[in-house]
Design a protein that fits this description.
The chain is of the alpha+beta class and 161 residues long. Helix content is 29%, strand content 22%. It has one domain. The chain is built from five helices and five strands, in the order H-H-E-E-E-E-H-E-H-H.
């Protein structure tokens, strides 16, 4: 992911009002973020713990989405819909995003289960275990990274539907 500054992040949001964008708080340690190791930038707003943000690249441009965390935590062990990690004990949380355009103004939303700490980029970069003799672990990791990017872009595209 290309490095982003605060201005680019604030200008990227598709499903947030100007007021919501002006109220957003950047993640703690924003200046030290290594964008080379991220497929998307995701964080929970420290001032509004039920509000979260995700910014990623779509067709070379940053696109941001405002998310709301569900009231209840996921009770059963769930799998993240984005990184599809099945080995880590990360908490998975239901996040919903208001759709764009007239549907969003009516209150329509789209939901997804995502790692509560938005650690998907780190999860997919771990080498998977050796599945069988001759298994290409680096290729499997690269494929997981690409699937993560596809899942995030697909979720964002679903906001326009």
């Amino acid at each position: 992911m290309r490095p982003l500054d605060e201005r680019a992040i604030r200008a990227s949001f598709r499903n947030a009002s100007r007021k919501e964008v002006s109220d957003l708080t950047l993640p703690v340690g924003f200046a030290e973020i290594d964008f080379d190791r991220l497929d998307y930038l995701g964080w929970v707003d420290p001032k509004a713990p039920r509000r979260a943000y995700v910014v990623t690249e779509v067709d070379g441009a940053p696109v941001g989405v405002l998310l709301q965390q569900a009231d209840q935590r996921v009770v059963a062990r769930a799998q993240c819909s984005w990184c599809e990690d099945v080995t880590l004990r990360n908490d998975v949380q239901l996040f919903v995003a208001r759709k764009t355009g007239p549907a969003g103004r009516k209150g329509d939303t789209v939901g997804t289960l995502v790692c509560a700490n938005f650690g998907c980029s780190a999860n997919v970069r771990r080498l998977p275990p050796l599945a069988y003799e001759g298994f290409d672990r680096e290729l499997a990791r690269d494929l997981r990274i690409e699937r993560l990017r596809e899942h995030v872009r697909g979720f964002i595209a679903g906001l326009d539907a």
